[in-house]
Structure formats: structure tokens, C-alpha cells
Design a protein that fits this description.
Length: 329
Amino acid sequence: MKKAMVLTLLVFILLFQGCELFIAEAPLGSIHAIYVGLSYHGTDVNYLAGTLNDATELENCFTALCNKHIRPIHSYPLLQRGGAFESWGETARGTRYPIYSYDTPDTYATLPTKSNVLSVIGALKPLLTEKDLTIFSYSGHGLEGGSLVLAPSSPDDPTIFTSENRVKSEVLLSVRELLDALSALPGRQLLILDSCHCGSFVEGSGSSVSLIEKELFLDEALALYFSSDQYSPSLFVMAATTASNTSKEPVASSHIHGYFTEAVLDGLGWDHQKSILKESSPAMKKGVLTLDSLYAYVLENQDFPLTGTNPKRYQHPTISGGAYTLRLF
């Protein structure tokens, strides 16, 4: 009987709120957005073709959205592009690939080294209020466990692997290190991650349950709604894939994005052909754009299978945040 009463109350809340619960409707503050993208040109790991497009177009898209909706935004792009073309290499299978030099000294201040990334995050603290939102986007390689593979800090040795074929610790930013750095900031934080194993940032506890998920279990939903420690989360994550799977991008295209990021941009209303914001954002519902509505759009429109038997042929985006969603615009 008690459970039935609680269920009735939960249904009433959902209907009354129009099927979404928001964090308290205070005026939206400024957005401070850090965009990290690495091509890995000039390093000793395989390069990625869509990551720089991901970072630069997310920046352009969020800037255009903020201008449209009159929300102040401050952008901090950290990009590893690589230097000039040097020669052609050849794989063991005879496939040719271009070899580039590493980034030039004039770009080192904005190179996404571990030191630079953490410094930019730390420098935001005195600039933020409790109304503000910090967005951290990452497009690049990720290791099992979720660690982000950042840029080598030394131009004299732009390698990522050691002589023992291990990834150097100084280029790795772990899940714990990034979350600890972000948790020190006032306001709320949103991570948009497009890398292998980035679902490691979505905790496997009740806090990772989203009302958007069709597999939502009733008892977990009830616990979230009436649990004080999850009532008002400050950290939100939307990740390209699960902790145990990889993120993918097309092998060949005239304009490459990660499959996940392309769907995110589409949902926000980005026109890839004209590089401008469209008149409307498809993920917006009743004039409001939330993280859950954006996630729902990605699940419906990602141009790559969400499920399958071969992990190489599917990727399923994940989300955290609990019972409440984050309003973006």
C-alpha cells in the first residue's frame, strides 16, 4: 500500500512538471566552456580525423546558442593540431599514411597538456558563481578506465609511449583527477566526452540513472526522487560510450566527426554544411533545451548502432545526473 502511494505521488510529480524535473528555476548564469581536442599528428599514436572538428564546432555551436538565447559565454579552446606535413609512412599492410611534425612553439600555451588543462580549470574558480555552468568537452583517445590521453609537454620528445610500449603517465588525466579538479569549482559542471571508455565517468550507482532510459527500474527511480543526497546534483556527464566499449568515427568522409559528437551537434541545431546555427534546435522541447532532451535526441539519431554483439560495431552513449536534468537554454 505504501509503495502504491509513493508511486502515485511520483506519477503526479512527473505529470505536473511536464515529464521533466529541473534544478530550481533561477536565472541562468554564464557558461565557461573548455574544449579539448587532439589529432595526435606529430606523436607516436594513430591520429584521429574528427576530433578537431568536434572541438571547434562545439565551441562555435555553443557560442551561437548563447548569443541567440542571451546567455554570456567564455570559451577556452585547448587544441593539439600537429605541425606541417613531413612525409608519407607505410603500415605493415602497405597502407600509406601522412606523417606530420609536432605543434609549433607559438601554440604551446594552448596545447592540451595535462598541466595546461588543469591550470585552465583551476583558473576558473575565482571567475565563477553558483549560477554559472562549466562545460568541459573532450575529443581524443581514452584508455581502459577512462583516462584521457593528452598532449606530450616536451617539443623535444612528442611521444606518448615509453620504450616499453606503455602510455606515459604524464600524458594521462584520470577520471578521479578530472572530477576532483571540476568539483572544486562553484556552480555546475557538464562533461561532454567523446573518447574510448569515457563511460567510466558515469558512475555505476543510482546517480547515473536517467529518466530518459527506457530500462529505468522503478525502485531506483523512487530512491532517487526521495534521496536527499541526490536531490540537487552539480556534476553532469554525457559520454559517447560505456566504460567497456570504444568510441568511433567514420573511416572516410569529407567532414568527419565522432558519431556521438555529430549527433550532439545535430541535436543542438548545428548546420554542418553552412557552419552556422539553424533556426531551431531539434532537441529543444517546449522551448527548453535540457541535457536529457539532448541525450534522447542522440539515442534516436546517432548514425551508428547503439547495440549489437560485436563491440566494434556499436557504441551506446551514457548519461549521469540522477532524477533531475540540467537546463542548458
